[in-house]
Each structure stands twice: as structure tokens, then as C-alpha cells.
Specification:
Oligomer: homodimer
Structural class of chain A: alpha/beta
Number of helices of chain A: 9
Largest interface: A-B, 82 and 82 residues
Low-confidence stretches of chain A: none
Distance between the termini of chain A: 36 Å
Strand order of the largest sheet of chain A: 2-1-3-8-7-6
Order of helices and strands of chain A: EHHEHEHEHHEEEEHEHEEH
Strand content of chain A: 25-35%
Mean pLDDT of chain A: 96
Number of domains of chain A: 2
CATH class of the largest domain in chain A: Alpha Beta
Number of strands of chain A: 11
């Protein structure tokens, strides 16, 4: 048995995702990153640029998980309200952070360049620590178990790398993918038996539709290498049996 | 003023999204579809293949929204538990639906073809109505204000078209996108003034990073055409003023 793993949630903030105008790629990137370092992503939520909604989601997610990662809403415009919402959620004030102002001053040298809008990006909940932004300078921040990052994917990705040292990872989940040439409906019952016989792994079954034919990707996941090996062998044996017994079944590549 | 608009939430069900193995494209597709028919998408959640988590999310989202759309977890394998979770959430039994069995029988003609696993796809919460699946036959279903659809994008998209006739849309939000050649930090303060002066529109500001230069997409949205036209003119006038007053500012394409 392994120790309980740290968990996480991602909170994506932005009307543009909910209108369908912008496709969110940040949550998928964070998901893959967390899987690599052994942190279980347990939930993703997307909420609009509405303070009450951000606060409610933050409170629910930070209470239920080891870490929460937010993306979006920390730029210089009127619709960037994430920092205020985080301050509200934590019950702290928000103020221009001296280090954040200094970072902006080094980049925006004259008072004309360091506009009022850009100075907004130095407004940080009191007690938070900054997350370095090597792309465009204006920092993210970290307060309690919440990491607040930009929405621009390139900036978010750079911030995430800077956050990694502050995270306590777990034992990474290993996975093996077995390509099954048959549809899920052909293998379902036998696969359920394998899953039941191998409780230390989880087996995900994902239909692939190409032209009019279904095949299946079977993803076997576990933190225990021996269990993973045993379950993979059982899945492969099961598929060999089906290939032999069902040869000629015209519905092998139906759903 | 316009009547209050119907609202919606999307619930994406599947470990594969949370592990980062599969990128969710369904929620973005549903988002764009709902925007076109005037339904406000208010939240997207992604939860794992865990019944308690599905039930809790379903209950929260269906209480808060006119409609809930779920994707994933209605196939023939052991990890497909969405139908059971929906039955639990609604407090109803689950049983093989005669019409669903008939649909499957027409496609899977012999008893060998209509496997136990495939028959699982006819298990539908009692009281639900079926959603036609022209791609692979096994239906989705609709109970209360919840529409339960497949996770395979092509099937989900076909089901969504079949669901449309059951939805009461609202006045669609119209949007105008203005390409701003400057970074958000240059326009932020003036933009906030325009936003404040035009309360019948929402103005979203989205930074675009290309090479090392920032520009901004400004998306002006409203259900009121006259308000949209007026706000768009105000945004364009604001940008013309900035272009004139700030010509030569070396930080115009910084963040």
C-alpha cells in the first residue's frame, strides 16, 4: 500500500471559455503536469468573471483538496477580478505589493509606461507570496493552498514550472495503454472481470471511432508496478481469448 | 430590457480528462452551441468516474441551472457509471428500457452480438426519455433538466443536435470583436471607463501573445443590438485616441 496522495483542483476563470469563444487548454496542461509528479487532480471547474462565483468555487475546492490552481483574471483590465476574489475568499485585504511594484518598475521604466492599469497587476492579497513570471513580468501569487496564475497559456506554463518547487508530490501513477482492436461492447464483460480481479489498478476503457469502426484504448493505471504488470498481462490474455473465440463475429468493430 | 435567459451547466465525467491523457473538447463544443441559441453556460465541471462525486456535482448543477448537459460514462464497460449516478441523484430505479433494448436489437441481431456488455447500454433511469444516437445506436437520455450524452465527440455532437428541439433558448448574445494592436496595460484604464459607461454590454479583454509582443482582442457582448453598436463605437474611438496620444510609447505592445 502507498501513502495517501496529495490532491488538487483546477479553477478556470473566464467568460470567454463559457461562451465557447476560447477553448481552455490550461486545465489539460496542468492535469498532465500533476499526473507526472504524483498529485491526483480531482476536479476542474470553469466559472465566469463574477466575484461571488469565483469565491464560492475557491472555497469549495480549497477545502476539499491539497492544492488549488487557478488560471485567468489577473491582468490589467476591468474584467480581471481574480485577485480581489481570492482576497475575499481568504478574508484578507488586497494592496499593492512592494515587490510586485518593483518588478513592474524595472520593466516599465517611466511613469507613462507604468500605467494605472499595469499597476493594478501589483495588487496582491495581503500575506500572499509572488509567483515569478518570466514572460511578461506581472507576477502570479500563492496564498494558503491556492496558486493563482495567468490565463495566457505561455505565461501560465512558465508560472507552473516556478510553482513546482513549492509542491509536495506523491508516488506517480504509472500507466500502460493497450490498443484493443474491438469495440467496447465486445470486451466489456470480460474486462469487468479483469478489473474486479485486479483491485490495485484502475482500468479505463476509451472508445475510438474512426470512419465507422470502433476500437478501444485500454488504460491500466496504478502506483504499484507489480500490480500494473499483472493486470496488463491479464488484459492481454483476455484480448487473445476474445480474438480466438470471436473470430468472424461481424460486430467486432461495432460499439 | 430582456427577459431572464435560460442557464446551463456542463458536467464532464471521466478520469481520462483529469489525468491529462485526453483533452476535453466536448465542453467547448457545447459552450458554442448554447451561445448560439441564447442559453447562458454558467459553469463547467469535470469529475472522476466516482459515483458520489458525480451525484454531488449533478445535484449542485441541476439545482442552480435551467439545464445540465453531461458527457461521458454511458458506454458498455465497467467504468461507465453515469446512468447509475443519475438514477441515484434523482432517487429513481434503473432498468433496461424496452425502447433502448429494441434499438440495440435492430443493430445487434444475434444473441452473440447483443452481448451482456452492450445490453448494459439499455440501462436507463426509470422515467427518462431516450436521446437518439445516429452514430452508434446506444441512446443517451433526458431526465428532469439533465441531458446525458456520450463522451465520444462525434456521438455527443449528434446527440446534441437531437436535444436542441427540447430546449427553450433565449435571445442570443451578439458579439463584436475589435482587434486592438496594443497590450492590455496600455488600454486598461480607458477601457474600464468605456465599460462603466455602457452597462448593457459586457466587454471582455483577452491578451494575445505572439513572439514577444502583446496585442488584445476586445469582445463586446450584449443581447441589445443598439447597445452593442454604441459600445463598439466607443471602443473604437478610445483606441483611435490612444493611437494618437501614445504614438512613440515603446511599451505599446508590452503587457
Amino acid at each position: 500500500m502507498t501513502a495517501p496522495s496529495p490532491t488538487a483542483a483546477v479553477l478556470v476563470i473566464g467568460d470567454e471559455i463559457l461562451s465557447g469563444r476560447t477553448r481552455d487548454t490550461n486545465s489539460g496542461h496542468i492535469a498532465a503536469f500533476l499526473t507526472e509528479i504524483g498529485i491526483d487532480l480531482r476536479e476542474i471547474r470553469v466559472v465566469p468573471d463574477v466575484e461571488d462565483r469565483i469565491v464560492a468555487a475557491l472555497d469549495a475546492l480549497r477545502a476539499a483538496n491539497t492544492y488549488v490552481f487557478t488560471t485567468g483574471g489577473i491582468g490589467p483590465t476591468h474584467d480581471d477580478i481574480t485577485a480581489d476574489a481570492v482576497a475575499t475568499a481568504f478574508g484578507v485585504a488586497i494592496a499593492h505589493h512592494p515587490d510586485a511594484i518593483e518588478i513592474l518598475r524595472q520593466h516599465y521604466v517611466t511613469p507613462e509606461e507604468l500605467t494605472e492599469a499595469r499597476l493594478r497587476m501589483a495588487r496582491i492579497p495581503v500575506g500572499a507570496t509572488l509567483i515569478d513570471n518570466p514572460v511578461s513580468k506581472a507576477p502570479g501569487f500563492h496564498i494558503g493552498n491556492v496558486f493563482v496564475m495567468a490565463g495566457v497559456p505561455k505565461i501560465m506554463q512558465a508560472m507552473l514550472l516556478n510553482v513546482e518547487k513549492e509542491l509536495t508530490g506523491g508516488v506517480p501513477v504509472q500507466s500502460v495503454t493497450v490498443d484493443c482492436p474491438f469495440g467496447e461492447g465486445v470486451i466489456g464483460t470480460a474486462l469487468a472481470d479483469v478489473a474486479k480481479a485486479h483491485p490495485a489498478v484502475s482500468i479505463g476503457s476509451y472508445p475510438i471511432l474512426a470512419a465507422r469502426n470502433f476500437s478501444t484504448k485500454l488504460v491500466i493505471r496504478s502506483r504499484e508496478p507489480a500490480a500494473l504488470t499483472a493486470a496488463t498481462a491479464a488484459v492481454e490474455a483476455m484480448l487473445a481469448t476474445i480474438a480466438r473465440d470471436k473470430a468472424g463475429d461481424s460486430t467486432l468493430t461495432d460499439y
